[in-house]
Amino acid sequence: MIQAKDLQAGELSALLHFYADAGVGWLLEDAPIDRIQEFEAQQAARREAKQSQPAPPQRQDRQASARAVDAARPLNPPPVAMPNVDAVAAAQLAADSARSLAELKAAIETFDSCNLKNGARSTVFASGDPASRIMVIGPMPSADDDREGLPFSGRTGQLLDRMLGAIGLSRETVLLTNIIPWRPPGNRMPSPAETAICKPFIDRQIALAEPEHLLLLGNFPARFFFGESGTIHGLRGGWREVAVGGRSVAALATLHPQELLAAPATKGLAWRDLLMFSQALSRT
């Protein structure tokens, strides 16, 4: 087995990035550790330290200690986390202030009130042709998206390219985006609070791009726009009118490319949805 000490710097960096993308929070030790014995030793040390503590200081000594603590406290403490309701309001203000997709991209990149941004490498914004009036919307960035800084990268993006190509489209002739602009740690689903904070940004994207057709990929986007809790198998296969960005837009949900990679037998369902999407485009 190759040990970390035998790896070159580049190889070690790639290995650590692989662990981070896989959601690994810590590494195992080379030798087993008896955590129970370790905990008992820590408890015994605490009891011994408590018994050997001197008597409490007099009031004057306590005041001197308090002054010393105040003197050591930094003049500019780190900002306090913003409550969710204030973060949503801040996101709404930032989104409403954007008068173009370029301004919206800059607003999202400078927005610091969503904790998802702290754990992500990239802010993944829309790419493609905003004038196409066609938006393809996924749930959130994948590890490949986060690494490349572009939506639908890696194997998922390659399969999406083939899906779009089958109906005469490409990533250059549609607008690709995600509801959440930052990858959640370990590819977990975003929390309701995180989703609420990100909602003004995707709403504003749609308002600025003014699409006529939305292709929603996967459970999360279908539930987000349809306001229902079913699975993609129950929500796909039919057009819905969704109200977003102050206008009504025709939306069709289908399976996400990642779901097709995991279950290739479902590609037939996605193909029927793509044909339905293509027929609607040809009529307009």
TrEMBL record:
Residues 65-74 have a biased composition (Low complexity). The keyword Oxidoreductase does not apply. Pfam families: UDG (PF03167). It catalyses: Hydrolyzes single-stranded DNA or mismatched double-stranded DNA and polynucleotides, releasing free uracil. Residues 125-275 form the Uracil-DNA glycosylase-like domain. Residues 42-80 are annotated as: Disordered. Keywords: 4Fe-4S, DNA damage, DNA repair, Hydrolase, Iron, Iron-sulfur, Metal-binding. Its EC number is 3.2.2.27. InterPro entries: UDG_Type-4/5, Ura-DNA_glyco_family4, Uracil-DNA_glycosylase-like, Uracil-DNA_glycosylase-like_sf. The keyword Ribosomal protein does not apply. SUPFAM superfamilies: Uracil-DNA glycosylase-like. Belongs to the uracil-DNA glycosylase (UDG) superfamily. Type 4 (UDGa) family. This is Type-4 uracil-DNA glycosylase. It comes from Pseudorhizobium endolithicum.
